[in-house]
Amino acid sequence: MAGSVDLDRAIVQWLEWDKNPKTLAEVRQLNCDGDIEQLQECFGSRMKFGTAGMRSIMGPGFSHMNDLTIIQTTQGLCRCLEKSFPDVKDRGVVIGFDARAHPPSGSSSQRFARFAATVLVSQGIPVYLFSQITPTPFVVYWDNGAQIVEPHDREIAEAIDKNLEPWSESWNDKLVDCSSLVKDPFENMKNKYLECLQKHCFHRDINKETKLKFVHTSVHGVGHEFVQAALKAFSFTPPLAVPEQKDPDPEFPTVKYPNPEEGKDVLTLSFALADKEGATVILANDPDADRLAVAEKQESGEWKVFSGNELGALLGWWNFTCWKKQNPESSCLKKAYMLSSTVSSKILRAIALKEGFHFEETLTGFKWMGNKAKELIDKGNTVLFAFEEAIGYMSTEFVLDKDGVSAAAIVAELASYLATKNTTLSQNLKAIYEEYGYHLSKASYFICHNPETIDRLFQNLRKYNETNQYPKTCGKFEISDIRDLTTGYDSSQPDKNAVLPTSKSSQMITFTFKNGCVATMRTSGTEPKIKYYAEICAPPGNSDFEKLKEELNDLVNALVEHFFQPDKNGLTSQST
Questions:
Q1: pLDDT band, residue 1 (cuts 50/70/90)
Q2: Backbone angles phi, psi at 127, to 5 degrees
Q3: Nearest CA to 271 among 299, 236, 295?
Q4: Pair 531, 517: CB distance under 8 Å
Q5: What percent of the chain has pLDDT over 90?
Q6: What is the four-CA torsion angle of 240, 390, 195, 126, rounded to 10 degrees?
Q7: Secondary structure of 481-524 in the HEC alphabet?
Q8: For 5-183, CATH number?
């Protein structure tokens, strides 16, 4: 075929190394057809290993998820583990999988798990391979139980590049079935998880007697069995499961997007079941059950879907309230912490200031919050709660990551407790804001497929309108401070250096306004998006909700008009 030298070389390597008959045949056909465009998509680049691991669609080629790229990735991970942990052959590696699959290529999450296990076992490393689908929170990441951060991601990526050719036994997945090095941790881990979770149940009698009815949807993912078990561990009657969505289905046939963060569109079947059965609270997990969305029926008959920030306020308040009853001594507050990501609501900061515990902000993502939590715990502190606005919550200390299973049980207990006080989640949220100050937020994003446009947009903010400095206003709103985590600049610090880690490979600028608003613009690490997050934080006593909402909307409009300039930059607006 007539392709570039690099493309031809990549195809030759693929034809030599791939042993999956479906993906091998597909590449051979593309090669015979001379389909340069499709071959370029499959082989034009290689998936990069980052702190979120490998992300791509399933399909043939080095740029996609498939048997060969999984083998290559695991070989690199294996060599990195051998270097980082001389006792890895005593420790072993945990491997889990979900229900996702791609029939045209014969790929599936379970098949990938088997090949990953094969690579490790072939090198004499024990593997704890789950026999059934599991929620992500059941599978730990690094030796500290948190997601990997630098420099581990870079070291793994380098090791992958040095170990691309499959080893002699890497394709022999029969090793998984006959090796004494492979053990199934499913039942043991499930039992230990539920045992640890029960320590966070504080109102078992209320849970047993509650008249509230709950609906749960796993959105065709892995959450059904585990949420049922979690609520049973809290002494609840099992929640009503949305029948069309309770069993895993990688095609997600009943929803356009299998992500409850999208809001009401994903919950249509949940609303119908709840209305039919008289349930007033809906618990919705994403397909791998590490996130949780919650909806509550209002007196008007309408359903309110709580935002990630609103649910973060409710869970933060509840976790502190329960912990405080167990630890009434004021000295305990000195070692109590809550965390949230920098683009999430600052409501935890407001609660911490009034109640006397500590609050810390991290970069976006639970890789940062999980590692910060472990660092604090290792110093003898207690981390009560951590959350991110993208409906991710860490309500326990035994999972250092977002966990939609434990969050579902804890939200159910909170709702049941409030019902004994003749109040609701929505009413309690209002009470929290009245006590600690209203925190209203608005988030959205623009689609942009051109990296040069994104770079130009952010460079314009650094040299605003050719002034060689950051903007001082955004429309009518005066800016008091600017933090740029791409360059490491922070005007609020005495030395002008940002406290949080910086990264030149991503764009992120935060503007603090004199009216109490904070707005962050950042690029997505996995999608062609420029995201923005805006919040107005009012002091306690300012209960003019409509005025605050209007001011926030005005700020967002100014942000879009002056900083994004969508028409000029060819951006497509989306709402989250």
A1: very low
A2: -130, 130
A3: 295
A4: no
A5: 87
A6: 120
A7: EEEECCCCEECCCCCCECCCCCCCCCCEEEEEECCCEEEEEEEC
A8: 3.40.120.10
Report the distance separating Cα 317 and Cα 279, nearest Å. Answer: 24
Q: What one-letter code names the amino acid at 154? A: R
Q: State the CATH architecture for 309-436.
A: 3-Layer(aba) Sandwich (3.40)
What's the pTM value of the predicted model, to 2 decimals? 0.94
Cα–Cα dist 68/456, whole Å: 37
Closest listed residue to residue 167, CA positions, set 77, 82, 71, 47: 71
Tokens of 75: 């070989």
Query: Measured between alpha carbons, how far is 553 from 548 in angstroms, rounded to an integer?
Result: 9
Average pLDDT estimate for 355-383: 96
Q: pLDDT tens, 536-560? A: 999 888 778 899 999 999 999 999 9
**Placement of tokens 């001011």 in the chain:** 551
Q: Is the fold of 191-304 the same as that of 309-436?
A: yes
Which backbone phi and psi does 88 adopt, to 5 degrees?
A: -60, -30
Reduced to 3 states (helix: H, G, I; strand: E, B; else coil), residue 294 is strand
Domain ranges of the chain: 5-183, 191-304, 309-436, 439-575
As a 3-state breakdown, the chain gives helix, strand, coil percent values, each rounded to 5, of: 45, 20, 40
Alpha helices in 152-203 (DSSP H): 152-161, 175-178, 186-197
Alpha carbon separation from 485 to 54, 186, 498, 499 (Å, rounded):
24, 41, 7, 9
* Rounded Cα distance, 350 and 315, in Å: 14
Collect all residues with Cβ–Cβ distance below 8 Å to 119 and sequence separation of at least 6.
Answer: 71, 74, 75, 78, 167, 170
Buried-state track 539-550, b at ≥16 Cβ within 10 A, e below 16: eeebeeeeebee
Amino acid present at 402: K
Q: Are 49 and 56 in contact (CB under 8 A)?
A: no
- Distance, CA of 254 to CA of 124 (rounded, Å): 43
Residue with tokens 């031809």: 8
Q: Which residues contact 572 (CB under 8 A, 6 or more apart)?
A: 446, 447, 448, 566
Please, which residues bridge with residue 240 across strands?
Answer: 215
Whether the bond into 21 is cis, omega within 30 of 0: no
Maximum alpha-carbon separation in the chain: 75
Q: Which CATH architecture has domain 439-575?
A: 2-Layer Sandwich (3.30)
Residues pairing with 216 in the sheet? 241, 283
